[in-house]
## 1
Amino acid sequence: MKKKILATTLALSMAIATMGSAMSVYAADASSDSNTLKLVLSTNDGSTTDDRVPTPWMNHNLATSLMFRSLLIADSSLQETGPDLAESVDMSEDGLTYTITLKDGLKWSDGEAITADDVIWSINMVQEATRKNSIYSAAFGNITELTSDGNVITMVLSTPYAQMKDILAQFSILPKHCLENEDGESVDSCSYWTNPVTSGYYMVGEFNVGNYFTLVPNPNYEGTAPKIQNVTVSFVSDFLTAAQSGSADFLYGNASDLVDGMASLDNYTSIPVDVLFYKYFIFNMKGIDGKENEAMQSVDVRKALIECIDRATLATLYPNATVLNSGVPNSDEAYNGFEYTFDAEQGKADLEASGYDMSRTLKICYYNNDQTSIDLINTIVYYLEQAGLTVEATLSNDGTTDLFTTRDYDIGFKGLSSFSLNEWYAEYMSNSATFANIFGGDTQFDEAVSALSAATTQEDRDAALNTLQTLEQENLYKVPLFTVGNYVYLSDNVELPEGVEFCNPLYTCDIDYVDWNVK
């Protein structure tokens, strides 16, 4: 309790009020519409802009999950799969060859056939795309052959990938005929996303740029139509304000201000969801383009900076946070027992001894503008200032661009709602489309990451994780602070069928949506 009071006091004492508490909400007035589900998309973290539908190749949300389908669909554990666009996905005994058979008669919302060419183009294109989830790079980077014969696709890997079917249940197939002329830099931001051709329950009806878009039934969806006929998706800057104004029937999050605020609304049900949601630091060191940040090159500097910050106190800012010391949670049997220590005086001494230029301004970049994140950043600034540093913290409006392309910072504060431990470690891969820009394309993690991906036994998994923990703790390319639990919130307007279980809200799973009702 003392630590939480300290963190809150520190944060409040650092002129949080200057950040402003008022946040605008742009929401369609669907309160008078019957049979309409009201969804919201947040524009406060740089992953979503209010002029287009967000690409499902980055993160899923309920809206994109209702529009775009994958080859398979997962259950709430995200580890058991069943048919979706594919009627079957069969793996050879050696784990190297996958035979994917598409269902017959599938159509896009514009009436064009969904074909093997769409699948092959999508898998190839996501590897070129700039904005994407790293799980796709890690999985599809092992493909050596991808061919089709009619509606049967053959995918051959160079090495087994234990989670391949799970990944295929997350990867949305997009229409080649609409996007084949786009390149990796523009595939997520081209005009297609204002009126996308879809494969799921719905397609876009009206798009009001800067405010909302509506979803209407897809006439070419071949399965059972959902009971809900209309969906309104509003772009908002703050989930809590959207809930308070009655603009959201479904939302999720883990920030303390959201959790506390939602607890006071008696017309919402809170559903805890067990997810692997990391909050962590990344260091801007050097890119594969040759651009280096000289100040962060020394591992001694990076270690000293971490010594100066009390991660346990930072964790108290969140309602359900667990401090950790690697990508492997402390409760996992593979955890190696290493702990980062907080020692402000020793950290200051080590920083001075490292040769770091104490006269320069240390820059922090972050992209979440919820009050909890602002409090956390201000507390970090306080700790580093106590070590004798001048610190400048900047809120980014486009986290991906500023962290991995512009790169005008020393420490980045980031979140990762991880599919699995593999996703955390895939960020170290030398071929990562984003992290290679700050880690320099270092290859020393590649072999162990590949071993983890191919592991089919507990012994092999633990051995790979032990190697990876040693590498990350020796190099300090990124440093985990803690994991945070997540919550799904449903308004009383929504009636769920019996037995629905939610998965990580940034992924997609079978939630029996066709039997949802709204009052």
## 2
Amino acid sequence: MKHWQLNKEESGIAVAVLDRAGESTNALSAEVMAEFAQILDQLDLYPPKGLIVRSGKAAGFIAGADIGEFSQLDTPEKGRALVARGWELFNRLAAVKYPTLALVRGHCLGGGLELALACRYILTVDEPGTKLALPEVMLGIFPGWGGMLRLPQRVGPAAALDLMLTGKSLDAKRARNLGLADECVPPRVMEMAAHKLLLSNRPRRPLPFVQKLLAGPLKAVVANGARKQVAKKARPEHYPAPYAIIDLWQKHDGNALAAPAVVDRIIQSPTAKNLLRVFHLQERLKGFGKDGDFVAQHVHVVGAGVMGGDIAAWCALRGLTVTLQDQSVERIAPAIKRAHALFKKKLRDPLRARAAFDRLIPDPAGAGAVRADVVIEAIFENVEAKHALFRSLEPRMKPGAVLATNTSSLRLEDLRTALVRPERLVGIHFFNPVAMMPLVEVVEAAGADPAMVRAACAFVKQIDKLPLPVKSAPGFLVNAVLAPYMLAAMRAVDDGVSPETVDAAMLAFGMPMGPIELIDTVGLDIAMAAGQQLAGGAETPRCLLTRVERQQLGKKSGQGFYAWKDGKPVKAVAAAVPPGLAEKLVKPLVDRTQALVRDGVIVDADLADAGVIFGTGFAPFTGGPIKFSLDSGTSSRKESM
């Protein structure tokens, strides 16, 4: 076989090893699944004492179905055939008479987890890379190969629906604690533990009585509760897949083939096609920085404010040694406190959180700059102050180290004039909040050293962010497109539309947050300063000017366009949204995005869409602002995507 190896051990145990040919990760293509059916054919003839399914890749177990095959589903028949292929194969695996076990080390996602669920036992290997998830909903589809049937049977319907409707992942220990995995062991004993569990004849941990009720007589209660939760975050017309998952579980026990009309509707939906496109855009962003050998060990961050401190914390979380410089230990202390909370939340393991905390070193004297592979300047936005800092840093830095600025508004060409080697300065522009925003703009000024830009992209990728190369220009991409959008929202308020109605219009459009609430969150003073730089001389909206004059600066002051209580805006009931308001508000954002592509600030329309989606949360189901404008017929440009 091309992708699988089947080994029979002296003990009578068969081991099926998936090592997909020509790929760095395992995915369940049609060919891979056909070969697995051949393995089951062989084992029907010569039944083993048990079967272990495992990966031959260092990168993980199985990343899911072959995404490339989704784009070929151009007829309803092909969509149904794809669902039937996995549903029937994994039902066959679940029905074999001999015990089966999935040895899960590394990522086990989508179809990979559905294969594991069809085994009698799941054993997870306790290391950071082990993640189990059914993330199909994030591609606008559903887990049709048995996940909707078997996950609720293992962990109970409420927990299963939560996992399927959010796409969130479980680490090895949490999978065991939830009942998804039968055992969780360290790597050194995984072989022995797998063989022992396989032959143990141990019954699976039964579902508690209450969970059985929820999966049976009270199924409708669980389903209705799940629908209410989904409705808070996603509208059925924008994201039909989560509603389909609930219906398929409630009415058909997760068998999508029993509802072919649902299969056709979901797979052929514009949402699924656009979310698949967004997935490919994300993979393209991940590709930046792959073509070099730059690896950072030590990062030095100057400026322990909210941005600098959170950048330092994130780098320490991702395994780097970080020195954090500011004028005194007292100024660094709040950043250390926030970092401690981040490590505790993200890592959950006290030993790993402690190790991350030990990697983050307060450094008021700036001694770490000498050893750092990446130095990031994150002080206040003042050219003279940054010049003084660069003059101090440059002579002490290693020759090949990356010197970066996190500026969001100043031109790199103006900042680098203080340097002996001005070509080494790049922008590495993070977004707030650092831990939540996946995108980082890598800013290249004219005449920049290409090796430094590549190294900056590699560093961003190393810390699990998405690098987006952009040219140096006011606002780069993300802030440049947000400025006219927020300006249009405030102009609408000046024209008598309530802030609540403006926000309601854009939430209905599919934005994660309304523009007025976004301005309150960012801070009205910051919005005003950014607007003066990016609005091209446009007059400041009256509603913004009057509030800033009264020091009503938004969330941070407790009052902006909204009053803020316990970190949340207090909103009146929105009036009916005037027809066309959302399209009117989003048009300046679309126009600016297209202009930035034309001007070469961003290389092409696809990357522009990726940047605006991952940098602003622009409704992903639309495929991005330029794709939206082409699909809705509002674009003045008709180039192919």
## 3
Amino acid sequence: MPRFVVEADGGSRGNPGPAGYGAVVLDPVTGETLAERAEFIGVATNNVAEYRGLIAGLKAARELAADAEVRVRMDSKLVVEQMSGRWKIKHPDMKPLAAEAATVLPRGQVTYEWIPRERNKHADRLANEAMDAGRRGGQWEPSASTADLPPQGPPGDAAKGAAAVRAAMASGGATRPAAPADSAAAAASGGATRSAVPADSAAAAESHPAPAGTDVRAAHTAAGPATPSGPATPGTATADVRAARSAAHGTPSAGPAARDVAADLRAARTAAGPEADTLFGEAEALAPVAPAQTPAPGSAPAGAAAQSPAGLAARGAGAPAAAAQPRATAGGTGTGWGGPDMGAPATFVLLRHGETALTPQKRFSGSGGTDPELSEAGRRQAAAVAEALAARGTVQAVVSSPLRRCRETAQAVADRLGLPVTVEEGLRETDFGAWEGLTFAEVRERFPDDLQAWLDSPKAAPTGGGESFAAVTRRVSATRDRLLSAYAGRTVLLVTHVTPVKTLVRLALGAPPESLFKMELSAASLSAVAYYADGNTSVRLLNDTSHLR
């Protein structure tokens, strides 16, 4: 059964006065925005607007999946307690709204949770955008919204300190100005630049032909802004986070204010403890740990060698496990790009399998097809990558997708390194259903409606019961966490496919889903991601094919 988180809010500038609501549907695993709703409703009270936001959020969740389990999170104690059945509904304006909300989805599918206002900023900003639009004489338009916050990991995480993490990410630290007097949000129309519509469908088939990427990009362009690159208003969270990023990479212009933002994030991570590390998986690229000192002009940041691809080999061999390393603290004085030395990371060297007969033909080749073996070219590629990894001497374990092409590639490397191969089901490729073995053009000709739905939404599955890319993201995230626990502080070769590799890289960067369109991933290519004990990640390598030349 699908599961969603709905965050909703409403506001009135006058109570009663000009009012609006906002609601957002989130994926509870990835934290990605699945739907947004907002509307200016004329003159109304705060409570009426809050109920209208709840109804809109529940309807949006129902449109995504009528059988979904929904966790509603609101900062309105009144609405949460009344809808939970603990408080009576006495006001005549509230009764019909509560009754309507109760009928959107079956009562057993919906639960309610009160959250502090600072953890409901996305819906709050949507409500203020709606009120701003009403003040201008119009209505809220999704394509013009800037309410979406940067990805923050699983919403609703009850681990200690999770609220502090979300508050730090949303507020940008102490450098933000106070909210306007007539605003019920931290920012009425500013804040973090909007992320694009979720599009894990960007991680296309084993060898996705160019027209697919073109079609998907066109779909996202039509849906709204496709990249988080819009202008930042001074004082907004976007500006602060960008400044924090500059400070973290040693840019002299960032200044102490940006380092304060990074310090807030470090303090939040410390409070959260190890249970909440997943909250930082997608946030690290937006606000990495800032250095204690700004490097002198022309000098390399301290620790840069360890962060470089060459440093990967130096730190991988013989490194102690990182499980017992201390966590970063707000007062840490570490130097370089990564803050305090957290010990050896768990490093995933990501190897896409060698070619099969389907690869040069650019056909969908997932986990639901014929499970092809390596071609002669693919076997040569596997031998070449085995020699390259043997020369580096850093790989300490080999883990493979269960599909034959990966197991053959992994075995070639493992035999050369003298290591066993462990098979991990979670590393398999997407199941492309009835599209297996077809080219993109053939799928477009035979299943045009299904293909368009798949391109438009990561929740849509290929024809014939295939696997959606949202499902793949959840599977790969869970697999990553298991492997990080099993191989703390070690360098592990993961032999897998296009979709898992791109998904791991995207999550490590904290990049939006459409970034997958911009990654090239060749057969038998190497990529690498390091995962530190404090939750930091570092993408070390992407699509290295030098060993094949």
## 4
Amino acid sequence: MKTETKKIIGIAAITLIIGLLLGWLFFGGSENRTVDQHQHDGEIVNETIWTCSMHPQIRQNEPGDCPICGMELIPLENNNNAELDPMAISMSRTAMQIANVGTELVGKTKAVKSLRLNGKVQADERLIYSQSSHIPGRIEKLMVNFTGEYVNKGQVIASIYSPDLVNAQEELFEARKIIDTQPMLFNSAKEKLKNWKLSDNQIAQILKSGTVQDELHILADISGYVTEKMVNLGDYVNKGMPIYKIANLSTVWILFDVYESDMAWIKKGDEVNFTVQSVPGETFKGKISYLDPVIDPMTRVAKARVEVNNRDLQLKPEMFVSGTAEAKLPIKADAIVVPKTAVMWTGKRSVVYIKNISEKGVNFMMRDVTLGPALGESFVVNGGLEEGEEIATNGTFSIDAAAQLAGKPSMMNPEGGPAMTGHNHGGGAMPTSNEASKKTVTKEVSVSQKTKDALKPLFTEYLKMKDALTKDNMEGAQKAGATILKTVDAINMSLFTGESHSVWMGFVTDLKSTLQHVQHFKTLEEIRKAFIPLSNTMIGISNAFKPNNGVLYVLHCPMADNNNGADWLSNSKEVKNPYYGQAMLTCGEVTKEIK
């Protein structure tokens, strides 16, 4: 009985298993596969892929940090959202926030440039007088014995013994004896003394005394300060020889240096505000009354003259002054002006990114523009932009990097091309922009003191290269340039995390691109040409990381780079120009301090 029961249970179990198997084969297999496939496809469509802006080869299904550099991952754009223009680069709101992208509308305004002018106080040339002797003789007395003494008009300032004067007085006395018969002779004798600048009162005293005076008093012809004493007691002088130089300082000239590149901005009648160190807290004003028609061939500057009332004598000749002039562009209509941070400059091309908003979201389109004059922190745009368009003014370098990664037209690759990774291991040079990196890093990026210490040797070698160029030392400049490259390679990349990593990687690319051929340069001019973008990058590093304990000075030479102007860093305010060396060592001025 038990055996039969076991057989029945076994047959039932086998029958159940066979039924389930046949049911799955005929009714469930294909349907389940279809559902599973559909669900899987749906997961792929809706899934967000996260990547690194500096290492786009990284792909993860969830947010986090880059395993290579530690930067926060950003969402990868969904390629299924087709853009309206295939040349535009789209960015999500999250990506724009991470890249700190800022925009503003293009508008027209009066093109005004604030020019910084340096100059000196000089005496008004029209109020400088040479007090001379009108008769030959020997200096017997000097009533004014030092420069700087004030004299009044008509004051006795010297006495001269002159044999000619003695003879002329004797002739006067003899002519007076026959004045009734020869009045013309008497008048002629008086006129002879007047020609020697004797006054009618002096001649009357001589006639009244009836005695010959051995000395002639020299009277000051004008009031003013003695700026130069040209004789000493006992000297013999000839007729017309200068004794003193006297200057009236009630009005002085301020002579400002105007560089050749700024000549188009300065015109007669412009108002200049200026200060002097000896009168702190007070600002003087004046209008330009004269511009030199000729540029000094040595300094390459012209003089702009401002006449200033100086009755209180606060301004003294040879004082240094610093002034500013609000110069207006000589155009009738308003001009389109954009911030410098909006423009990416390659040397030959200048580009901006135009913001567009569509149903698909926000996208940016690169556009070439024609730049006009620079206005301090902004540019005049002569062509390529229209009023009312919206452009990126901050984060432009990040937008351009995204365009490069996506193979879209970018600053260094206007035709577009394959996406590039953050590190170039293939041996080719990555497109970059020294100017862009200099302009986009406008704020300090937080790094550790250890990171700052690692950057200090970089500045030491840069300053060595600068000093070598000021001395026209080609070998020293090449050696310092090569050491900069070695110093960059020796800096531990792991010191830079988060935002500082992307900033540092941009600077590293710029430095290597600039100095990779420094050892093969044949002339100083080639090295100096490379020193321009190198200096821009070093200024950017200094602004971003503040690695130096002391003050660094940014100096500017308006004549360098074919009169486009160029900057450099120095640890001293003293101007020693690396772009011209000994040929024009003192050309330039301090424009900024980085502390």
